Every structure is written in C-alpha cells, then in structure tokens.
Amino acid sequence: xxxxxxxxxxxxxxTVAAKAKDYYSIPHISTGDLFRSNIKNxxxxxxxxxxxxxxxxxVPDSVTIAMVKDRISQxxxxxxxxxxxxxxxxxxxxxxxxxxxxxxVVNFVISNEEVVERLSGRRxxxxxxxIYHVKFNPPKVEGKDDETGEDLIQRDxxxxxxxxxxxxxxxxxxxxxxxxxxxRGLIRNVQTSNSMSxxxxxxxxxxxxx
Length: 210
Ligand code: AMP
What we know:
This protein is α/β, with parallel strands linked by helices. It is 48% helix and 14% strand. The longest helix has 15 residues. Strand 5 and strand 6 form a beta hairpin. The chain has one domain: 3-Layer(aba) Sandwich (Rossmann fold), CATH 3.40.50. Strands 2-3-1-4-7 form a five-stranded parallel β-sheet, sandwiched between helices. The chain is globular and about 45 Å long. The structure holds adenosine monophosphate (AMP). Adenosine monophosphate binds next to helix 2 and helix 3.
C-alpha cells in the first residue's frame, strides 16, 4: 500500500503513521524527520536546511524531491510506504506521480484553533522521535520519553512565532493538494479533533483505507 498522509502541521499525521507502519508493515517516511536527523548529524544537507526548518518555511522542492526519490527507491519500500509531510507543493505531487503510483491519500482534517493548541503543547523525544502532547497524549512520566526516559524537547518550529508562519505556508502551498488529489480520486478524509485519542484517529484511518 502506497500512501500519503496529508493535513496541516499538528493534524496527527506522524502519530497515526507510527501506528499504521506496524499495522500495514510498511515504512513510515517523514520528510520532517529526515531533515531533522540530517540537522542532528550535521550533514551538508542538514546545514543547508537548518535555518529553513527553524523558521517553519519550506525546503526547496528540488532538494526535498531528490531526498524522497532516493528514500522510496530503497528495497524496504517495494511493498509500500507512508509518506508523512510529502508532498507539500503541487510541484512535489507532480514529481511523486512520476516516481510511483499511489493507492490513497489520507487527508487529516482539523480546525486551525485546534492545530495551534496541539502544536504549542507538542513535545518529542529527540532520539526515538516519539511524539507526545502535554495535555492530549502525555508521557507516563512528565517530560520524559516512555521508552528511553530521555528528556522531551519542544521543536523550535512549535514555538509561537513559527506556528503561525507554518499555518500560512500550509494554506498557501499545501492545501491546494486536497483538490489536486481529489481530482485524481485518491482522497480519503479523516475528521480529527483534540477530543479524539490517537487510537480513535487510527481506527478512523483504517476504516477509510478499507
Ligand atoms: P514536519 O515535521 O512535517 O512538520 O516538517 C518540519 C519541517 O521540515 C517543515 O516545516 C519544513 O521546513 C520541512 N519539510 C518537511 N517536509 C517538507 C516538504 N515536503 N517540502 C518542504 N519542506 C519540508
């Protein structure tokens, strides 16, 4: 199954993808995670994109497309994959269509107010990538990763000034993809809200993918 998870930042794409990858036995490819790991490892790519991520802007299409092309050509992607955070522009969607044929695009729908509440409370473990929310999905021990016990961090781009910019970027550049994929018969909508647990959103996702 080849899938794209679409939706604004904070819609829960990464949290659901972490569950879906085990359920469908396919890799979860988050372009944001790939960039963050390059930044952490101080690679050339990491140095090139660090300031862009901190500001909440988009990495140039050419760079992002090349990275995804390389990743989905790996043997573990033969049976399928979940792309989380890619494509984010029409040019990326066109490039992806040339690389492979998708089975579905899951569009996570959430209001702007709820997105702001989610992003500002989001915390993550820098090494495992596990995502939490101080209110909606807290770790077992406050501020610590459930698996490793490491200190959780707040992403720079989850701080207030970057959140608004990311939402503007989403509306201008990424939202048009909903129509683009609807026109191609691929969109499956999943309505989410802050009162739904990650498991409940995952159940809805499985339903629309049946
Ligand atoms: P995410 O973890 O998906 O919210 O992505 C974090 C950041 O990585 C974004 O705000 C962008 O700076 C960058 N990024 C991730 N995916 C893409 C993409 N498909 N195109 C351009 N930039 C991206």
